[in-house]
Amino acid sequence: MNLVVVGAQWGDEGKGKLIDILSEGVDITVRYQGGNNAGHTVIVGNKEYIFHLVPSAILRPQKICVIGNGVVIDPKALLEEIDGLKKRGLSIGGAQLKISSNAHVVMPYHKVMDQLREGKRSQKIGTTGRGIGPCYSDKVGRMGIRIIDLLNPQVLKAKLADNLNEKNDIFVKVYAFKNYDFSEIYKEYLKFGQRLKPYICDTALFLNQAIKNKKKILFEGAQGTFLDIDFGTYPFVTSSNAITGGVCSGTGVPPTKIGQVVAALKAYTTRVGEGPFPTEFGKEMNECIRSKGHEFGATTGRPRRCGWFDAVIARYAVTINGATQLAIMKLDVLDELEEIEIATAYKYKGKIYKDYSHDLEVLTHAKPVYEKWPGWRTSTREIRHYKKLPLAARRYIERLEKLLEVPVKYISVGSKRDEIIIR
Questions:
Q1: pLDDT band at 299 (very low <50, low <70, confident <90, very high)
Q2: Per-residue pLDDT tens for 331-373?
Q3: Is there a catalytic annotation at residue 418?
Q4: Alpha carbons 341 and 359: distance in angstroms, whole number
Q5: What dihedral angle (degrees, nearest 10) is formed by the CA atoms of 273, 85, 59, 414?
C-alpha cells in the first residue's frame, strides 16, 4: 500500500527521520512540493545528512527517489546537493534519482525578488529568500520556466527573453535594482540542463507504471500543514500545498492510488519565521526546549519558536490530511519536565474556540486553554518498546490519541535512525 508522510504542525516535525525509516519498506520515495527552502535532517550512526531537494531515501541502496512536478527546483542548489552526496560515497545516477520534466525552475531573479519584496513589507512573512514564492507566482502566472525547457535552447531563449523584459522593468523602476543580463543566465541554465539531463523524465508516467507493477511508493512533503498555502496561517505560509491533497497535483498520481497517511507531530510544537503561534513559550522555556531539541532550521539555521502541544491545530491537520496513523516525534525532549501542558481549545473575547479558526486576529490574540499532565522525569532515549515507557509518558501519548482520534504508530525518542518505538 502506498504511503504519505505529512507534517501536521508548522513543519520541522521530524519527517526526515520518519521518511528515512519508512523508505526501507518501499521501492520509491517521491517529494511532491516545496523547494530548497526546507530541509530534512537524518542521522545514521554518527553521520548527519541534510537534504533540501533530494528525498532522504537516497541513503538506502537500490531505492529510487523522485522529485515531482509540484517541486520548484533551483538547479544550482540541486546539483550542489547531488555532488555533495556523491562525495560522501552515495551512488546517484538516472536509475536512483528521477526529476520531473514538468517541475518549475527557480531563476536568479526569483531569489532577488523574494528578498526585495520582503524588504518592502511592514508585515514580514519570514521567507527564506530562496526564490520559492516568486517561482510559484510565475508558475501560476503562466510565465514559468520548466525543467524540460532547459533542454530546448529555443524555448528557453524565448521564455527567458520575455521574462527579463518584464522583470528588469520591475527591478529598475520599482526597486531601483540592476538589470539582469540575458546571455549570462541563458548560458548558465543551458549548462544546468545538460548536467541534469540524465535524471529528467516524465515522472507521472514512471510512477503510475510503477504502481501498475505493484511497486510501493512513499510520498513526502516539505513543510507542514499550517504552512500550506490554502489551509495554513495565511499569509505566514509557504507557496504550495503541503497537505496530502498536494500529492496528486504534485506527482500526477491519482487519489485512488494513495493508501495510508502518517501525520508527523512533535510532542510539543515549533514554528520558524513570523506568524501566529498560540501555545508559544515565554523566553526562558523557549530557550530551554530549543536547546534540548536542537531547534534550529536545517536550511537556514534560524532558531525555531517553541511551545506546548496544540491539539486544536493537530485535530484540524488530522482531518484535512485524512491521517490514518500518527508519529509523535522528539518525545525525549520532554524527558526532564515536571509538568507538561496540552492546549485543547482557545479563548478570545470570552468565546471558547474548540476548532481551529482561520481568523488571523483570533489566532494572534487567543489564549490557549490548557490541560496539565505530570512529566516522567526519566530518560526515554534507550527505550524501544512502548510498554517500557514510563507510565506518565504512556498516559501523555494516549491522551494525544484520544484528542486526535487517530492511533499513534511511531514514537521517536532520539535523533538517530534506531531511536524509535514502533507499536
A1: low
A2: 999 999 999 999 999 999 999 999 999 999 999 999 999 999 9
A3: no
A4: 24
A5: -40
Q: Do strands 420-422 and 339-348 pair parallel, antiparallel, or not at all (unpaired)?
A: unpaired
Q: Please say if 294 is a catalytic residue.
A: no
Q: Compute CA 52 distance to the chain's CA centroid, rounded to the nearest angstrom.
A: 9
Which residues form the domain of 31? 3-101+199-261
Do 339 and 355 lie in a common domain? Answer: yes
What digits encode the pLDDT tens for the residues 140-193? Answer: 999 999 999 999 999 999 999 999 999 999 888 888 888 889 999 999 999 999
Do residue 397 and residue 273 come from a single domain?
yes
Determine the pLDDT at residue 16. Answer: 86
Q: Which residue among 12, 20, 74, 138 is the active-site one?
A: 12
Query: 20, 40, 74, 310: which is the annotated catalytic residue?
Result: 40
Report the C-alpha gap between 258 and 248 in whole angstroms: 9
Same domain, 352 and 205: no
Grid coordinates representing 33?
512540493
Domain termination site, one of 261, 281, 307: 261
